[in-house]
Amino acid sequence: MQLSERSTADVSIPDEFDSAQAKVVYLYLHVWPESTADDLCAALSINKGTVLSIIRTLRKRGYVERDEGQYRLC
Questions:
Q1: pLDDT in tens, 7-47
Q2: Rounded distance, CA 40 to CA 23, Å?
Q3: Domain segments of the chain: what residues?
Q4: Is this structure's pTM higher than 0.85?
Q5: Which of 19, 37, 30 lies closest to 73 in space, CA to CA?
Q6: Where is the Transcription regulator TrmB N-terminal domain (predicted)?
Q7: CA dihedral 1, 29, 26, 13 (to 10 degrees)
Q8: Is the pLDDT of residue 48 over 80?
């Protein structure tokens, strides 16, 4: 699937996401899967501690998986 196809596809953000930053991280990973924490920090202007905390929560809830330092939606 090309980037344009992924970015225009419908994406539903789970209702349990209260944090705007978590929603942005989720949407970013929808469009750019296999991103690193540094990619997320640079693209979203969120500090690394916050990104890692969000990713940890999303992983615990089963929305994100990690493979060789890269994150993607499950």
A1: 546 778 988 998 999 999 999 999 999 999 999 999 999 99
A2: 13
A3: 20-73
A4: no
A5: 30
A6: 25-72
A7: 0
A8: yes
